[in-house]
UniProtKB/TrEMBL annotation, chains A, B, C, D, E, F, G, H, I, J:
Keywords associated with the record: Aromatic hydrocarbons catabolism, Isomerase
Subunit structure: Homodecamer.
Molecular-function annotations in GO: muconolactone delta-isomerase activity
EC code: 5.3.3.4
Pfam families found in the cross-reference section: MIase (PF02426)
InterPro entries: Dimeric_a/b-barrel, MLI_dom, Muconolactone_d_Isoase
Family statement drawn from the similarity comment of this UniProt entry: Belongs to the muconolactone Delta-isomerase family.
Protein name: Muconolactone Delta-isomerase
Pathway(s): Aromatic compound metabolism; beta-ketoadipate pathway; 5-oxo-4,5-dihydro-2-furylacetate from catechol: step 3/3
Catalytic activity: (S)-muconolactone = (4,5-dihydro-5-oxofuran-2-yl)-acetate
Length: 96, 96, 96, 96, 96, 96, 96, 96, 96, 96
């Protein structure tokens, strides 16, 4: 099932450039794994902001929380979750 | 290029059931046309609200405005537009 | 799976007392059915407001939307949905 | 009587990992005690956020404040309290 | 126990002057009864606004809701409830 | 004359426990003095938050500012002031 | 003593042009009287909005409420009141 | 001097199509006159909303208010005004 | 021309008492100069908050920005600017 | 195509004056380059705040994000992006 997730990243200035780079690299690796597994179905950058809009396809809120709370940047993100479903005017048979 | 669009629909109680049905049917027909043409790339219902989250793929803000402002329910919608772009951690080469 | 749902009811003054009573009675019957079926697991009144806080246990966002959007008072409600999951400090094995 | 309590946790980055772990462990022990005593009737994790939604069953605002203000993570929590009561459409005789 | 209650009144323009007068008069009578009974412990007008700040002393959220939801002006009020308790720096022994 | 004052306290984590204790103790002594003098007519704790709701009875905004700005915790408080007056439905002859 | 008052006017479209003109004319007459008496010390229009920023010099919240609540446009105004006092860096001896 | 003005238009549903058309046509004529005179220096449509972002070049707040408050759609607009000035990093010598 | 300016001051706790005193003293000197020159026409303290409400009389937004951005406390202030003009119901011939 | 961009700058107090000066100088150089290239079409200072209002003319959200996210002050800015298009009442044939 689908969840719309908006993530705003605010890394504190006290972290060193090395720590930030390591976090971003780890986040990138994890985001790619989750895209390949199909759980992170869409991932877009919000133009002009250190933020993304994502669509997750997971088995439910527990799996979603498990994924999000283990992201390397989770401690530095403000996250808003919105459950989605198929729209009655969609031309697709499922929630794609 | 991609735009994230959230639409909240608030139809005034003064409209008759026939007017509302006609508006919804016209909206549905138009939404399907735009999905088939590729401009309305994704359309999801927000669970529990008369609202949707959509992704539009258009040539720019003018085409986006032209499409949205001609939707039959446009006078009754609160709309928020956010420009998107490819995320550097996306596993895709384009903004899909 | 669980969803936290807050509903604020605002019935327009233009409805007659009969229409309001019929709506409230239909809402009440439906709410009781859904509680008995287990889908509407908890239903509490917010003290001092025409509003409730509810916990729904459904198969996913589609079933939740199906239930909420068919409530008799749906056109007059402002609804906020929050997906929940088991808390790691819960003394229960499931999400109860 | 029942109170709906939402807690958002924001632990400052300046705390050491050991301090954070000790706080979380103490919080967990206390949360379990309070659930067993019946005062913390429900405890759910909000999916995707370091936050919970809880239902407390206490003798009144004084006991509620006493409990919340002594939680180990209290200095790091943003808390919103909403008093609840039995809903007239509830199928239960009490406020469960 | 004590609850802090803020009430903002917005009477729709469609009501006749007679209806408004009758509502205000009924509200006044009821407010005085509740003050005399001790349930509505304090009642102040907010300077410059059709609003009040009140302190209620009731047996719990159910009695508070019962009182507020039966006020003649309830359908036209926006209400915010905040549970209070004795402050540790109070010079009084109870929550007065 | 009466002023409704809400105070939210946020003490920065960088203060030592000794500094915090000294501040709180000084605040407590001053709050008691002001209650005894009659200027701080009511003082209640907001359940679940490090905040209070107070009623001040002072000669005007200058005295109110003088009192509030000299509170030991003033640099760490977010304060909202609302002027009050006697409510026309009050059963008292003055603004009590 | 001084109070800063912001007033936003929203006259409902259902009023006739004659009613609106009569209200505005009555408001104007009353505003001038209050300026001449010294109670309404300053009155400025907010550029681009049907709103004003005012400074009242009154004996306290009761007189302020009495004045504001009797303004002809009071039922159609959103009002925010802020108590002021002399600034310690003012070059004047009083609160002018 | 320059002012940044955002206008959101909300025409009430109770107006007839003829009234709305006449208002929009009058607004259009006036907007063009003001652009030609140089007072309305820039006028852009906000994509997806019945709103515009404008830059006015006027002699001061009085002229700005005079212009805005006489626009045919003024009674139906929510307006926000922000004064601008030349940016120190601008490559232009004036505020263009 | 007139501008309504609200300034909220938030000095970070990391500044030493000497730095804060020097800043406040410099701010005070500058505020008095600007009042004497006529540019800072009114300056009032907001009761209960480290904030002021001011009226500036300047030649336009550039002079206003020049004045405000050079205030010693500018880096620590949250500022909101609102352009004002003479109110049609003012008893004065100018914008005083 | 055009995008309306608002930037609020908040440089943390922990940066040294040298670091801040270097950042501002680098920002200034880059802003001038982008204005000369035509991408940063307009740049205005918001009077009284460390903020600007800008109009960018770019090939789409990707180029806009590329430009904004490489600005030297980007880590210290709060940015809001609004896509614009030609207004139907504009006297110009394009979106100027």
């Amino acid at each position: 099932m689908l969840f719309h997730v908006e993530m705003d990243v605010r890394i504190p200035y006290s972290l060193s450039a090395e720590e930030v780079d390591a976090l971003k690299q780890a986040e990138r690796v994890r985001a790619m794994e989750l895209q390949r597994s199909g759980a992170w179905r869409h991932l877009w950058r919000v133009a002009g902001r250190y933020a993304n809009v994502s669509i997750f396809d997971v088995s439910g809120p527990p799996e979603l929380h498990d994924i999000l709370s283990r992201l390397p940047l989770f401690p530095f993100m403000e996250i808003r979750v919105t459950p989605l479903c198929r729209h009655p005017s969609s031309i697709r048979d499922d929630d794609q």
